[in-house]
Structure formats: C-alpha cells, structure tokens
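Good morning C.,

I know you're traveling, so I'll keep this short. The sequence:
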Amino acid sequence: EITIFRDVGAIFARSPEIPVGRRFPHASVFPKARESRSGVYEATSVFDERLRLVAFERVGDFPLIVVSSQIREEILASWWRFCLVVVFALLIGFAWLGSAGRYAFRSVIQNETLQLELARLARTDSLTDLANRRHFTELVEKELSRSQRYGGELSLLMVDIDYFKRINDTHGHGAGDEVLQQLAELFRLELRNIDIVGRLGG
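The tokens, ready to paste straight into the viewer:
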C-alpha cells in the first residue's frame, strides 16, 4: 500500500484507491511523523487491521506524508524463502566438502599405507619375511662402519640347510618353502631384537 496523507489525516492519494478526502486521523503514522521527518516501524493498518511494516517520509515543506506499507508476513515469507535456499545450499556444500574431505583423507591414508607396504616389500624377502639380500647388505655395512668407528666385536653367522635340494626334489617346492619359513620363524624367536637376520638365498 502507498498512501499520501495530508497533515490533518485526510487522504490526498492512495494505491489501492480509497476516495480522496476520507479522513484517518487515528492512523499510527501521525504521532511518528510529529517526532521525525522519516522512519520505519511496525503497526496495525487502519485500512485492513493487519500487521504491516511501515515506512514514511514528509514531502519537503508541504503538509504531506508519504506512507508505504507491506504485510509483515509477506516480507518475512520472501526472507524466509531466501534463508531456506541459503541453508539448503550450505548443507549441500558442507555435504560435498565432507564427502570430498573423507575421500581425500582415505586416499592419503591408502597412499601412505601403500608406500609403507612398497617400502617394506622392497627390503623384505617375500617368502620368509626376513631382510632381503640388498637390505641385509645395507644393514651389515652400517654395523661394520659402527664397529670400525667405536671398536667392539662383531659376529656374523651364515646358515645353509643341508640337502635342501633333496627336500625340494623329494617333497616338492611347497615343502622346501615351509622349511625356509620355519627356520626364519626360529631365528625371530631365538635371536635378540638388535640382531640382523636376512635371507641371501638363490
């Protein structure tokens, strides 16, 4: 609604139309207009007795007041619709970010696990899970360097299984593998954790 009032409370012009000259001296805008030249407030309309948000302003030095009002629920409905759209968009955004974050985190963990496993496989004999030839040689070289620098004694023991070829030929390679695995497990149980065990093999 847009209404132009005269100071005396009579309608000068209005949309939607009401006969010009009709008086509404008890309209809420008049006490407000005496206090200020313009403003915004909430009040019940004298036309339809509905709660409205009202904006008013005096027209220059003329004895006229322009009043614009809209039903409160209509204004808030569009605002609430906007809020719902924003909240919905934020929820979708957060869900997407959460999903992407979980995927990225899972990928990082999988990559790290894979890299650790590849590093382990690169230095481990696949059959016995002992240090392979290359890794064993690296570890022994470090121990030799440490022994030469700080002194002290060092022991090296090389173990070979007697008649191992006969085990493979008679009972098959599966039995030979089982013998190697059992021997590796025996070393792990009996040796200290500071000792180095590897399979040179082949």
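Safe travels,
E.
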